[in-house]
Design goal:
The protein is of the alpha+beta class. It contains eight helices and eight strands; from the N terminus they run ββααααβββαβαββαα. Bound molecules: coenzyme A.
Length: 202
Amino acid sequence: MLTDGPVLLRPYRRSDAVAWSQVRRANREWLAPWESSVPGDWDEVNSPATFRWVYRDQRRSARTGEGMPFAVCLHSDGVEQLVGHINVGNIVRRAFCSGYVGYWVDRQVAGRGVIPTALALAVDHAFGPGGLHRIEVNIRPENQPSRRVVEKLGFREEAYHARYMHIDGAWRDHIGYALTSEEIAAEGGLLARWHRLRARTP
Ligand SMILES: CC(C)(COP(=O)(O)OP(=O)(O)OC[C@H]1O[C@@H](n2cnc3c(N)ncnc32)[C@H](O)[C@@H]1OP(=O)(O)O)[C@@H](O)C(=O)NCCC(=O)NCCS
């Protein structure tokens, strides 16, 4: 479990099925423009029954070392609410030691710094116990909120990927952002950097 203030990252549980389905179904318009195209109806692919497959897939990727998936939760007064998702995926070891991060958060809690905090926690975990050296985040140019997340944290903009990924029904361009462990080591990690940056914001 990784935590900072009210933000908590933990492995998914089988019992998350209903909460996961509710938040996904309620956020269709919010999430669909930015997510990989999936065949089928939104409510169906985000049903509690589908979560069983999502859960199994995430457990498998965590076990094989291909991914580091986390439920993003907010907790206060002993109550925990599942509000989003973050995953370090497509992990390649050996001479790469790299992974790609994807994330989303419930529209109801957007704009409170939940995902920058989650990303900082996930990156520190990936560079520390996870043994990775490089993290990439690829974002559609139109996705200003997501670009703000990585730009606030100081990811480097380093690539433009034309027709990179099939999102919301078409091949979409993406901007590539990246960070390597050396870039944040002297600052004590990405969470420490995020705390310092937040403290400076009026
Ligand atoms: C991108 C996303 C994960 C950001 O998460 P977050 O926890 O809201 O991040 P932040 O609180 O740092 O807000 C980021 C930016 O969103 C914008 N924002 C703030 N409140 C907002 C709201 N209620 N609605 C829309 N955008 C908002 C602001 O530009 C903010 O930047 P700022 O801090 O410079 O003002 C979230 O908007 C989301 O889930 N979007 C839909 C899915 C998605 O885009 N996933 C990423 C694909 S690459």
